[in-house]
Amino acid sequence: MTDNRTGNADATRGKHQIAFGVDVLRTRDGQDNHYQDNGVFNFDGRYSNDPLLDFLAGKMNSFSQSGQQLNDLVQTVFMAYVQDTYHVTPRLAANFGLRWEPLLPEHDRYNRGSTFSQAAFDAGQISSVYGHAPAGSLFYGDPGIPNGFTARRMNNLSPRLGLVYNPDGHAAPPSASEAPCSTARSAPSFRTAWSRRIRLWPAGHQHEQPV
Questions:
Q1: Distance between CA atoms of 62 and 51, rounded to whole angstroms?
Q2: Helices then strands (H, E): number in the chain?
Q3: Residue spans of alpha helices (H) in 79-131
Q4: Taking the complete model, does pTM exceed 0.70, yes or no?
Q5: What is the CB neighbour count within 10 angstroms for residue 155?
Q6: Which pairing describes strands 157-165 and 204-208: parallel, antiparallel, or unpaired?
Q7: pLDDT score at 155
Q8: How much is the pLDDT for 207?
Q9: Around 20, how many Cα atoms within 13 Å sit in the side-chain half-sphere?
Q10: Do strands 2-13 and 175-180 pair parallel, antiparallel, or not at all (unpaired)?
Q11: How far is the first Cα of the chain from the last one, in angstroms, to the nearest whole number?
């Protein structure tokens, strides 16, 4: 689900043509993943040399099952700009502009998720939010861990300068030159930490429970 609001305005004052605007994008991505929550049974014939006979005898070689993987991700993307086109002479125009596009990472509405810190793992640090989590697994609420698991970047500024020269000052094709400086927006990744997965093997079982 996406909600987009945009506004732009411009005004001419003498030799200046000033324009500014904002663009606000609000996104929401709900995910209800049932991957392997009904269980996966594998029969490879290791007991009877025939997978079908193993199935009929109920002798499986492995079993996997996981709980639901739930995400409800939201993000606000905010962009704003201002620019001034200044007619220096009838033949020369200069364009100055500045764009602001802060990075506000997406996050789960219910603050689900986790991140891994190698430094915390090496130090044997345990989460203060979920004390049974393995060392190095940190969650929102632990010191220095935001709900998007990525730091905000509020200083993403992109200035630009453009020059347009028209040799005769009328309708002849102008010569243009510009020097923009932009920042790249990275798409954050999000991993759920709320699934529980069980694997059963002939020699025993393995229980994976992150929290």
A1: 12
A2: 2, 13
A3: 118-122
A4: no
A5: 9
A6: unpaired
A7: 93
A8: 45
A9: 7
A10: unpaired
A11: 29
